[in-house]
Write a structure and sequence with these properties.
Helix content: over 70%
Number of helices: 12
Family: Belongs to the CDP-alcohol phosphatidyltransferase class-I family.
Keywords: Membrane, Transferase, Transmembrane, Transmembrane helix
Pfam families: CDP-OH_P_transf (PF01066)
Protein name: CDP-alcohol phosphatidyltransferase
Shape: globular
Structural class: mainly alpha
GO molecular function: phosphotransferase activity, for other substituted phosphate groups
Order of helices and strands: HHHHHHHHHHHH
Length: 317
């Protein structure tokens, strides 16, 4: 019996590995928990012929419900249940991507929808948790902490992390659906598309525009990277060099901008009844965020110089 269970989990874990685009940038918590249990839900979704978008919507409903329950931080029981729902939403967030890869339904728009749903859940969390403080001594002044903590330290940083994570997948794993396109490359919403498709297309354009404004990697750098990355003579060398150069900093991006970091801190401080301390931690976190942004900028500039030097050497030879 024990051997059978062990074999099942071993086979399941191997299957989890097969659904991952690139293990280099997977967060350890995701590998051990979210991806592991997410695959069960992905299989369930496949059995019921569900689409990844339908799983995402269920994740949204569960996550927003959990976020709303943080209004009742004076009850640790309700807060624990809120944490359970928020965690489940995170597992389903992994499941929709796994289902997409299992059924061949991965799309560029799907990547954006995932990010949109994450943002919607966290907005519900912030509003509900802050509403609890509005009734107390802090009153509306809680938003003096919440606005910079939620928008700059959380949402903007998560979008920057999503950009560099997608770039890593695009160049190292060759995942075309992970490419962050330039704004002018994005398709406009067609009149023939349904309301929701047009809605998400417009949001995607706004989201992508904001990403390019926030990151330090320029479009010129992207053009040079692509020229080398997809040249038959240089692509393998570029892929290995890109991986070796930028893999270390992806850990720090995940730490300061990853969903798991914010979700864990929110649940921890909310169960303590001190969401306000979480907001203060987010503001303090702006210091390491600035350091990682600068490190990324310098790494890109050095990487760019090396590529240009390589080009100049090849042309002279």
């Amino acid at each position: 019996m024990l051997r059978s269970v062990r074999n099942h989990f071993s086979n399941h874990n191997a299957e989890v590995q097969s659904t991952i685009k690139l293990i280099d940038i997977e967060e350890r918590f995701d590998l051990a928990f979210s991806r592991f249990f997410g695959l069960y839900f992905a299989k369930l979704g496949k059995f019921f012929n569900m689409t990844p978008t339908q799983v995402s919507i269920i994740s949204l409903i569960i996550g927003v419900t959990g976020g709303y329950m943080l209004f009742y931080q004076d009850s640790w029981v309700i807060t624990v249940w809120a944490s359970v729902l928020i965690t489940l939403a995170g597992v389903l967030d992994s499941a929709d991507g796994q289902l997409a890869r299992m059924t061949g339904q991965s799309t560029e728009l799907g990547r954006f929808i995932d990010g949109f749903i994450d943002s919607a859940i966290f907005i519900a969390i912030y509003l509900s948790a802050c509403a609890y403080y509005v009734q107390g001594e802090m009153g509306w002044s809680i938003f003096l902490l919440a606005i910079p903590a939620g928008i700059i330290s959380h949402i903007f940083t998560s979008q920057i992390y999503d950009f560099y994570k997608s770039e890593f997948l695009y160049y190292v794993a060759g995942s075309e659906s992970s490419k962050v396109k330039k704004v002018e490359e994005l398709p406009d919403a067609s009149e023939e598309e349904g309301f929701w498709n047009k809605f998400f297309r417009r949001l995607e354009i706004d989201y992508t525009k904001r990403q390019w404004l926030l990151v330090t990697r320029t479009e010129e750098m992207r053009d040079v990277y692509e020229e080398v990355a997809f040249n038959e003579d240089t692509k393998e060398q570029f892929r290995e060099k890109y991986r070796a150069t930028f893999n270390p900093i992806m850990f720090w991006w995940a730490l300061v901008g990853g969903t798991n970091t914010h979700r864990t801190l929110i649940m921890l401080f909310s169960i303590m009844g001190r969401f306000d301390l979480y907001l203060i931690v987010c503001l303090i976190k702006l210091i390491p965020i600035a350091i990682v942004i600068l490190a990324q900028k310098f790494m890109d500039e050095d990487f760019m110089k090396e590529l240009k030097f390589q080009f100049a050497t090849q042309e002279s030879a």
